[in-house]
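Action item from last week, closing it out:
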Amino acid sequence: MNRDEFNTHISGQLNRNLEALFNQVLEMGGLVEQQLNDLNRALENNDYALAHSAMLLDKTINKEEIEIDRLCANVLARQQPTASDLRLIVMAIRVAIDLERMGDEAVKIAKLAMEQCSTNRDCTQMPAYGYLRQLMQASSEMIQKSLNGFSRLDISDVMSVYREEEQMDEVLKQAMAAIQQELLAADSADKVDLQVRMLMAVRAAERITDHALNIGESVVYLVKGKDIRDLDEEAMRQLLEDNAR
């Protein structure tokens, strides 16, 4: 499949609607990328303004999801989409949901960062802080690969996104163990509160990596017409290698 297929219909309006849908997904994805990049910089530099900016972006991301839903409904109600068009519509709805949920999870992390900045808490010294940064950096890299794959209708990076998500599952386990140890040693309500906030943040960051993988899987569905969500690693690798030949 290539992107030109969405511009070969007799109906010029259908061509324009499909192109608008494609671009809207990329626009929404770009906003989530910006949100995650702002969060990474906020956590690295203890920057309240960047964390606040990342949180405010969530409203715009939510509006983008509504617009994608509108475009999909418009094509289904007024045009006669082909099988490949329908895959784009299904994929756009899936991706919009994942992107919106990524935005929601990012808000949880932004709140931790803002609390850190406003109270001058030195979260960088917490054992789980390094894991949070690792998860967030992976999130940015994974969503970039998945969205680049969508933009080019290219699934060559999906396997690396899959493997990175598995690695982040292990990072989450390590972060949870570190937080549990800190909670057992906590000698004040303030320290317990901070650890609970960090627990929520690392869980949110790991969920973001899950959604980034979901988007990569949706790209495979669009390009290959196959749902790979239930495939094991070997079956997925075989499918992607067959595509590369």
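Closing note: The first helix runs from residue 12 to 45.
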